[in-house]
Amino acid sequence: MRPQSRRAPRALYAAAAVGTLITPLLAGCSGAGGSGGSSAHSINVLMVNNPQMVELQKLTADNFTKDTGIKVNFTVLPENDVRDKISQDFANQAGQYDVATLSNYEIPIYAKNGWLQPLDSYVAKDTAFDQGDILKPMTQALTAADGKLYGEPFYGESSFLMYRKDIFKKAGLTMPAKPSWQKVADLAAKVDGAESGMKGICLRGLPGWGEVLAPLTTVVNTFGGTWFDKDWKAQLDSAEFKKATHFYVDLVRKHGESGAPQSGFAECLNDMTQSKTAMWYDATSGAGSLEASGSPVKGKIGYVPAPVEKTASSGWLYTWAWGVQKASKNADDSWKFISWASSKGYEKLVGEKAGWANVPAGKRTSTYDIPQYRTEAAAFADVTRDAIDSAKPNDPGVQPRPAPGIQFVDIPEFTDLGTKVSQEISSAIAGQESVDSALKKSQQLAEAVAKKYEGS
C-alpha cells in the first residue's frame, strides 16, 4: 500500500538489463498454496501480502471461483520476498505462476525483456471491463515502450500534503489550495512547536530507493532538476538538483520529525496520528489510516496537492498491478481473474463485504462516483483522484527524460543506484556529511550507470 520498501533484487534486475535469464532458486518447488502446475480450470497467483490483497484472497473462492469454476492457488508473501520470487520465476519463464502483482516500476522492464503477456487483445474483447474507466495515468504507466498494455491496476496512489486544520486555525494560518514548497517551509517554521512535542512537518529520511528518494525526487522534479537529461548525462551535481536537495534536507533538519534519518512512511504515519507533527508530505494511501474509525486525528486533517515550484503538479504515481507471465499456459483464465479482481463489480463487493474504506481505489474514474465511497472518503477522495489524474510519468519535470518515472527512473539499475544515493542523502539529513559531499558521491554513481545508456 505504500512505496517505502520497493527494493527489487539487484542481481536479477541487472541481469534483466542484458537479457540474461536466471535459474530460479526455487525451481521445481510449488509455492505456498500453489500446485507447481495448473489445470485448465486452475491458476497460480503470486501476490504481495498487504491487507487489500489478503481481502481479495478471502473473497475469491465464494465469488470468482463460484462464478467461473476457476480455482485460484494463492502464494502470498511480504513485499521484498514476493519481488524476489516473482523475478526468479518470470526471468526464467518457469511458468510456475500465471499471474503476479507487479508495480509500474517493474512492468515496463519485464515487458521489454519479453516476460509478460500483452493484454490488449483481452481488453478489446472484454468490453465489460471498461478500460476507458481506468484512470489514464495508470494505463499509461502500465503500457510499455512498444505501445502495448501489460498490466491492470488493483489500486493506485499518488502523493499529497496532509496538515492539521485545527492547529492551523488556532495559529491563524491558512494553507493555500495549491501550495508552493517555499510556502510549506514558511508554514512549517510557524507551526513547529504549536503543541508540546509537535514538529512542523514529517518528511522521509530513511534510506531506500522507495523511502527518502520517493518524496525527494518529486521535489527535485518541481525545482527543475532531473536524475538524467535526455542524453543520459547524470545531473545530480546540477544547480537544480542541489537546490532541491539542500531545501529538503534543511527543511527536515530544521522543522522535521525527531529521528528523521530513520523515518519512513510508517514512522511519519505514526507521528501524524499521534499529533507529533503538524504536516506530512507522502502517499495518498496514508489518508485512509488517518481517517479510519478510531484514529485520534480523524476529521482534523486537511489535504492539498503536492507542493510545487516550477511544475504544475508534482505528485508521484504508483500502483500494484496484475501481470501475466509470458510462459503461462493459462492466459485466458488468468485474464478472467484479472478482469474480476480489477473490476467495478469487485469494488462493490469489497464495499458491501468489508466496508467502503477498504475499497482498492485510485484506479477507476467510476469509483469516485459511488455515493458510499464518497461519503467514507470525503476528506481526501477528490484530492487523491486529482493527484493521480495530474501525474505525468513520462514528463514529470521541466525537461525531456530518457526513461519514464516520477519518483524513480524506470531502469533496472535504479534499485541499486537509488539505494546507494539514498544512503548518502540520509547521511546528510543525519548531519554526518554535507549535501554537496553526498551529491558529489551520488553523481559519480549515476555517471557509472549512465555509461551503459549513453548513445542508445
From TrEMBL:
First and last residue of the signal peptide: 1-27
Keyword set for this entry? Signal
Report which superkingdom the organism of origin falls in. Answer: Bacteria
Look up keyword Signal and say if it applies: yes
Cross-referenced Pfam families: SBP_bac_1
The record's section on InterPro entries has: Bact_solute-bd_prot1, SBP
Name the PANTHER family on file: ARABINOSE-BINDING PROTEIN-RELATED, DIACETYLCHITOBIOSE BINDING PROTEIN DASA
Q: What is this protein called?
A: ABC transporter substrate-binding protein
Taxonomic path: Bacteria, Bacillati, Actinomycetota, Actinomycetes, Kitasatosporales
